[in-house]
Amino acid sequence: MNTLAAWLALLIYLAFAYAPWRAALTRLSQRLGDWSVGLLLLPYLLAVSLRPPPGDLLRLALYLALPTLCLRRARPFDRFHVLAVLAIWVPIEPDLFLLALNLVMPIIDLPLNLSLLPEVEATLVSDVALPIHTLTAISLALFVFLVRHPLKGIGFTFRLRRQDLQRALAGLSAFFLIGLPLGLGMGFLQVDPAVPELQDIIVGIVGGYLLVALMEEVLFRGVIQNLLTRRLGNDKLSLPIAAIVFGLAHLNNATEGFATPNWAYALMATLAGLAYGWVWMRTGRVTASAITHALVNLIWVVLFP
After folding, report:
1. Number of H helices and number of E strands within the chain?
2. Inter-helix orientation angle 54-70/132-142, to 10°
3. What is the pTM of this model?
4. Residue 274 CB contacts under 8 Å (≥ 6 apart), including other chains
5. 143 C-beta neighbours (distance < 10 Å), count
């Protein structure tokens, strides 16, 4: 059941790019109403062999229900959209928000190791385990914003055009043109090339694209930047705002010589967010901006480990 859970979670996530699957889910959602989001519990139930601890099951059920309920009467980036985005994001990365709260209210001493969701892994293949809670989170975001309360323009599709790939590479070049000298100048980047094995490169590219870059692009470009553009009516203004949000989302990432809050990382991530956001704006596809994102991460790991 554990392996089945991993494949099912991955399949549900990627199937949102398939229009007939989204249409079928939409029809089912219209029949079942908000209860339809409960279908996303299935991979977790399989991962725990259909014997979930009651408390964990309740936490996950509430996690699925809250953003769905928030969006019943939402308009572009009103308080309900903000609450829905936070309801999806905070439980996955509570350390970041506790760090932000500590920065605003330093008198309060809060733990930075809080877990709000049951963290369960499932084995995809030998030596490759998938985080079911993370896959459930991205599937929830896609279900909410593509099916239950559709948000146009996310661009979650793998039907990429040649110009999409060209713009993804243009975004990559633009980021490194500015980010490389800045990172080296701050001492944030230190050249120390590593030569991974071919198998590690393939796993890193596929896993880095699907399980890191694409997930983040759905949230920051497909949802946040998208909603900002609709609310402000100006994509040139929404781009830097979304990039800053993306940069601040990396404050809790410690790197050698830079403790948390890591403002150097936030600056580099903001610059990267400008590149990713530009690619998304020009292509209309988060799957294209995720290519730029994944390539940046890959080069980072290989040249600046």
Report:
1. 14, 2
2. 20
3. 0.93
4. 175, 239, 240, 243
5. 24
| Percentages of the chain per state (helix, strand, coil), in multiples of 5 | 70, 5, 25
Question: Measured at the alpha carbon of residue 298, what is the angle toward residues 293 and 181, in degrees to the nearest 5?
Answer: 80
pLDDT for 303 equals: 81
Contact 37/140 with Cβ under 8 angstroms? Answer: yes
Residues in CB range of 190: below 8 A, 6 or more apart: 184, 256, 304
Instruction: Please tell me the distance from the alpha carbon of residue 235 to that of residue 282, in angstroms, as a whole number.
Output: 11
Query: With a cut of 70, which residues of the chain have pLDDT below it?
Result: 73-77, 107-114
> What residue segments make up the domains of the chain, in order of their start?
1-150, 160-305
Extended beta strands in 37-138, E state:
121-125, 128-131
- Cα distances (Å, whole numbers) of residue 158 to 9, 15, 129, 210, 289: 18, 10, 24, 11, 12
* Encoded tokens for 208: 């880095």
Q: What is the pLDDT of residues 269-287, one digit of tens each?
A: 999 999 999 999 999 999 9
Q: How far apart are CA 206 and CA 208, in angstroms?
A: 6
CA-to-CA dists, residue 53 to 4, 56, 60, 205, angstroms: 20, 5, 11, 35
**Residue pair 5/46 in contact by the 8 Å Cβ criterion:** yes
Q: Give per-residue burial for 238-264: e unless 16+ CB within 10 Å, then b.
A: bbebbbebbbbbbbbeeeeebebbbeb
Please state, as a whole number, how many other Cβ atoms lie within 10 Å of the Cβ of residue 214: 24
